[in-house]
Amino acid sequence: xxxxxxxxxxxxxxxxxxxxxxxxxxKAEVRADIEGxKAEVRADIEGxKAEVRADIKTLSDRLDxxxxxxxxxFFQLSKDTLVFTRTVITTAAIVAVLTPIxxxxxxxxxxxxxxxxxxxx
Length: 121
Description:
Layout: H1 2-107, H2 109-119
């Protein structure tokens, strides 16, 4: 029985060695697969980062262009408002200055005679 036991033990040792070698091979293959997967994930992440950066750049450019358009609109509105304000102030000043003169002129006998001649009196 010793011989049989030794043969069984040797067979078990050999089987253990084969299993251990198989496990080591499997572990190496899994590690290689994991490293390959990591490389793919890193490449995907870099691609996504590049896309996000491009999108951010595009949005930034669009925002800058929109800000410039609004600046131009505000400047034009300010300019138009200034022109309108000057027109109103000028008109008010002319009315304020000319109203007393016109009133004096209408009340003058010379104006009354001139209007009478035009009307035919």
